TrEMBL record:
Residues 1-326 form the Catalase core domain. GO terms for biological process: hydrogen peroxide catabolic process; response to hydrogen peroxide. PROSITE patterns: CATALASE_3 (PS51402). InterPro entries: Catalase, Catalase_core, Catalase_sf, Catalase_SrpA-type_pred. It holds the Pfam family Catalase. This is Catalase core domain-containing protein. GO terms for cellular component: mitochondrion; peroxisome. CDD domains: srpA_like.
Length: 327
C-alpha cells in the first residue's frame, strides 16, 4: 500500500491525523478514529452475478471461498468509548479479502471499508479538516455570542448538516447492523465493461436497533460481549451478511461521497460474508496495530472512482498505521 504521491494530499492527511488526535487524545498504538474495535475471521463466497460484473479473484464463482479478516468498530479515536455512547455511531466495518500470494510471492489482498451511515459529511479531506477544526474551536468556546464555529460550518455545508442530523440508532449487535461503502468504485467485467457501484453489507438476520431506553440498560461493552456470546457454541456460532453492489445509472454522481444515489437503483448481490470466529486476544492486540485497511482496491477487476476522498483516506490510514507500528 504505497503513500499517495501528491504532497498536498499527504499534508492534509497528516493534518487530519493530528486534528483527530487533538480532539480525541493521542493513544499509542491506536487508530485516531474508530479506535475501539474487534477482529474476527471468516470466509467470503461469491455469487454468480459477481463474476459477471468483475474479474476480481474473490468474485470468481469457480474458485473456493476466500478467507477474510473482519473488523467491527465504534466511531471516535477514544479506545474505551462505551458502546452505549451516542458518539460511538456510526459503527464501522472493514473486510479484508486474503487472496494468497501474487506473482512476486507477496501476500495479496483487497479491502472494503464501510460504516453505518450511508454517506459522508464532506466531499474532500480539506473540508473535513475544516469541520474538525470548527469542532475544536467550538469546544474552546468560540462564537462570541453568535453562531459557534460548528454552526457556521454546518450552515455553509448542507451535506455536513445532513450527516450530523441523520438518525444513528445503536444496533443490538454488530451482526444486526447495515454498513455502507460511501465511496464509489469501478467494477471491470470480463468484457471490459465498467460499472460504478457502492458497496452495502447487509445482515442476513436483518437490521435490529435499540431504543434510547434499551441502550441505557446496556453495559459499556455490550456490543463486544454480544459478539463473543453469539460466536460461542451455545450462542449459535457463525453469522452472515450479504455483500451488495448498488449500481449507478447514467448521470449519477460518482465522485462525491456526500451525494446519495436514488434507492430505486439496482442492488446486485455479490456474495456472502460469513463471520466465523474471534481472533485470539494476544494475536488481536498485535494485528490491530499492524493491519492497515486500504480504501483503494488495488486488485484486478476493481478500480477506484474519481472520488477525491479515496486517496485522502489512504493517506490518513497510512500515516496512522505508521504511528501504530512505531508504538
Amino acid at each position: 500500500m504505497p503513500f499517495p504521491t501528491d504532497e498536498l494530499i499527504m499534508q492534509t492527511g497528516r493534518g487530519l491525523v493530528d486534528q483527530l488526535q487533538t480532539l480525541f487524545g493521542k493513544h499509542a498504538g491506536m487508530r485516531p478514529v474508530h479506535a475501539k474495535g474487534v477482529l474476527l475471521t471468516g470466509i467470503f463466497t461469491p455469487s454468480s452475478a459477481a463474476s459477471a460484473l468483475s474479474t476480481a479473484p474473490h468474485f470468481r464463482s469457480s474458485t473456493p471461498p476466500t478467507p477474510i479478516i473482519v473488523r467491527f468498530s465504534n466511531s471516535t479515536g477514544i479506545p474505551n468509548i462505551p458502546d452505549t455512547d451516542a458518539n460511538a455511531d456510526p459503527r464501522g466495518i472493514a473486510v479484508r479479502f486474503n487472496l494468497g500470494l501474487n506473482s512476486k510471492g507477496r501476500r495479496a489482498h483487497t479491502d472494503i471499508i464501510a460504516h453505518s451511515t450511508p454517506f459522508f459529511p464532506t466531499r474532500t479531506g480539506g473540508e473535513f479538516l475544516e469541520f474538525l477544526k470548527a469542532i475544536e474551536a467550538t469546544q474552546a468556546g468560540g462564537g462570541g455570542g453568535g453562531p459557534n464555529p460548528v454552526e457556521q460550518f454546518l450552515g455553509a455545508h448542507p451535506a455536513a448538516l445532513a450527516f450530523v442530523q441523520a438518525p444513528k440508532p445503536a444496533p443490538s449487535s454488530f451482526a444486526r447492523e447495515a454498513y455502507f461503502g460511501v465511496n464509489a468504485v469501478k467494477l471491470i467485467g470480463p468484457d471490459g465493461k465498467v460499472t460504478y457501484v457502492r458497496y452495502r453489507i447487509v445482515p442476513q438476520d436483518g437490521v435490529d436497533v435499540l431504543s434510547s431506553e434499551e441502550v441505557k440498560a446496556k453495559g459499556d461493552n455490550y456490543l463486544h460481549d454480544e459478539l463473543a456470546a453469539r460466536l460461542s457454541t451455545s450462542g449459535g456460532g457463525a453469522f452472515s451478511f450479504k455483500l451488495l453492489a448498488q449500481v449507478a445509472e447514467e448521470g449519477d454522481i460518482t465522485d462525491d461521497a456526500t451525494v446519495h444515489w436514488p434507492e430505486e437503483r439496482a442492488l446486485v448481490e455479490l456474495g456472502v460474508v460469513r463471520v466465523e470466529g474471534l481472533v485470539g486476544e494476544e494475536e488481536s492486540k498485535k494485528e490491530q496495530k499492524y493491519i492497515i485497511f486500504d480504501p483503494i482496491p488495488r486488485v484486478e477487476g476493481i478500480e477506484p472512482s474519481e472520488d477525491p476522498l479515496l486517496e485522502m483516506r489512504a493517506a490518513v490510514y497510512l500515516v496512522s498505521g505508521q504511528q501504530r507500528r512505531a508504538a
